[in-house]
Amino acid sequence: MSNLVSRVCAALILGALPAAATAQTFDSAGTRAAGMAGAFVAVADDASAVYWNPAGFASGSYFSLVLDRTYSETDRRSAKVEPGGSIASGRRSALLMALGFPALGLSYYRLRHSSVITGEGPARAAEGLTRAIGTASAGRKFTGAGAVRLDTLITHHTGATLVQTIVPGLDVGATFKLVRGVASSVGIPLDPDGAQRIDPEEDFVGKGTNHFDIDVGVMGSVGRMKAGLTLRNMTEPGFETAGGGLPALKLERQARGGIAITPIDGWLVAADLDFTRTAGALGAERIFALGAEGRVAARATVRGGFRVNTAANDTWSTKAAGVSAGGSYAVTPSLLLDAQVTGGADGGARGWGVSGRFVY
Fold this sequence. Notes:
By secondary structure, this protein is mostly beta strands. The chain has a single domain, classed as Porin (Beta Barrel). It is about 10% helix and about 50% strand. It has helices at about 1-15, 30-35, 50, 125-130; strands spanning about 65-75, 85-100, 105-120, 140-145, 145-165, 170-190, 195, 205-220, 225-230, 240, 250, 255-260, 265-275, 280, 285, 285-295, 300-310, 320-330, 335-345, 350-360. The strands form four sheets. It has a 14-stranded antiparallel barrel with strand order 1-2-3-5-6-8-9-12-13-16-17-18-19-20. The longest helix has 15 residues, at about 1-15. It is globular.
């Protein structure tokens, strides 16, 4: 009987809370790219091009191998609550393994995006839930009345990238992927008389499905300037949540363009702009990013950048302004270690990334 009551409560919660917000934003993977705040579509020249711009292989190294891990989280740390008491927070992580030659790339990457959305309830409950998604939140207790929905989408992408030069200085590429997605949307009532334990791992009950998808990229170069365009998730695969009866969590079609300029040898400046909107943890996102990268010593490279959400006028959106900093150290001429950290204002992403790259 208690199990039936729990299921009925969960169904009511899922129906009453705002529509599912979890999606997978464009700049989810890549330590080097994150160090430039995501201004990387026209820069991609290593194996991470399988994700950022498949056409980038044509102008990269003869051989490139990347092992990469990133993590970030977003929330409203000021506890500003939307009208009606709604609030959201999110977490995303990525694992990327890729290798490539000028005309061929092979890759596997795993993306996980989770979001917590609360309904009407006391501000103290909403304030505590802004941190409900982080790793440190597992097992944390929250008090107060209200309701929570935990949306999670995990996708496994296994792909092959093919690249073709159209004319000198203009290349196109495509990554053909088999995508396995595991989606979950769980309603959790908060106990007004006690403490509610929320664990993003324990409360995850997913349903897995497989789809075919394609990413397409174009890269052009003239002198010291490069321009790129990437179209991701061309088939917009959707993944049904466990239990059914709820909207599928899908990979929205995304388009991003970028330019990169090399003002002096060893240094570059890049800018990216999303042409489409994507549902993020705090609402619609359309990112503008500006970044730079430069060699400061024989073995050391530094990078940094700034990003802002240009779709911030939406009801559930925030400007999500943030800055990034990172660098690389060449253990050998061919082996590079990368790291980056990201910080942001209220609603901005905060996270880290580490990777190893072998280029030849």
